[in-house]
Amino acid sequence: SCSEHIVLIVFCAQVASSFFDTALQMVVKERCATNSTDPDSEQKSITNFYMTFNMINKFITIVPALILAKVGDKGYRKVPIIVPLVGYFVSRALLLLDIVLEWPLKVLFAVPVIHGLCGGFSLYWAGVMALVSLRTSEEKRSLHIMRTELVFGIAGFIGSLASGHLFNLYTVDLKHGVLLSGLSVLLYFLCLVYAVFILRVGHLTALGDELERRESVGIINQDARDTINIVLLFVGGILYDIAVAGGVEMLAAYVLKDPLNWGATMVGYGNAVGSILFITSFIGVKVFTRCSLRDESMIMIGMVSFASGIYFMAYVTTTPMYFLARSLTLFALIPMPTVRSLLSKQVKGTSYGFTFVMLQLSFKVASLVTTPIYTKIYQSTLDTFPGFVFILSSTFTVLSMIPISVVGCRSARHSGYERIQGN
């Protein structure tokens, strides 16, 4: 079935992504260590590289993602998946060439350019979410979207766990990271071939049209198309994404410095622990759904989980403390898929792709401002309190709870009204 096909692509692509992330992290560390005179200047070089790298990726993605999402909503549902996979394949091949040919680190800024011009993760994940949403009823949508995120997380866990060991494998003729980066490129190539020749989504357009026709008949409860709810969900989602993305981006540099000072194997393990959160979050959604908790309540639980864990991260000085802090964020990945599920219930089936891309791009635009702010705050507090950025993330998470709680109150007030179907 289509759902099984898309799950295979999600799994394979995320293993490839995990390989790439660890390879890039270690290549950047090695190059910056070679060119730096002390640990502080090395940290500043690493965070400056990632700041530029991430901002290029976020900025360039915007226009291509919007255009290609519109194409997807016109019935060409494979386009928002295949085009980003082309970008992934070509850009990841560039890292492999950079390692083999020993090009300067600045050449790697072309990676987010290529990736972004093909729509990037914003378009790819919106395309996946649109397919999943079109195949599910409103009642079970949160669970199905979370299940896709679970596959994404398990793949990330397996890939991250293996990546540190694979990075260290080399022979006299093969440099550090060549095997890991090469496997990433190969897996993306297999995903691309699978998406082009095996993935079948044609019947989903008809399903989406049928759902839309069904929705257009009879009296629709006003809450189902509530613009205020859409705005509040966007605001809550953006604030939470700023908190998570800002904290996690700084964490990538934080673990490479004293007192943690991780190598490739520990970086892989650390990334794997981040991926376990997909499993615990999925179990959380499953249990909370059976307990008949509303979507808004599940989002709040996830936000409290992340806020407490990232706050504790500010005071981490040993590796066991790091893993203890991560364990507090067990349900941190519940909010975003559940926000997407709630959003899909406010718009028509033929607008899923565009709505999901708009959500992803709003995250990117917001982080264009917050990424450099986080980076500069981290750099300026390196000697005094490097964990201050994590307290900042915890604060943003608490703020994101406000619009979500308002949506919960509004939905509860309207819950007495049922949708009435026409003849």
UniProtKB/TrEMBL annotation:
Give Gene Ontology CC terms.
Answer: membrane
The signal peptide annotation in the UniProt record is: none
User: Membrane-spanning residues where?
Assistant: 49-69, 81-101, 107-129, 150-172, 178-199, 230-256, 262-285, 297-317, 323-343, 355-375, 387-409
Q: Which InterPro entries match?
A: MFS_trans_sf (IPR036259)
Q: Which keywords, in A-to-Z order, does the entry hold? A: Membrane, Transmembrane, Transmembrane helix
Bilayer topology term: Multi-pass membrane protein
Q: Which GO terms describe its molecular function?
A: transmembrane transporter activity
Tell me where in or outside the cell this protein is found. Membrane
Q: By what name is this protein known?
A: Thymic stromal cotransporter-like protein
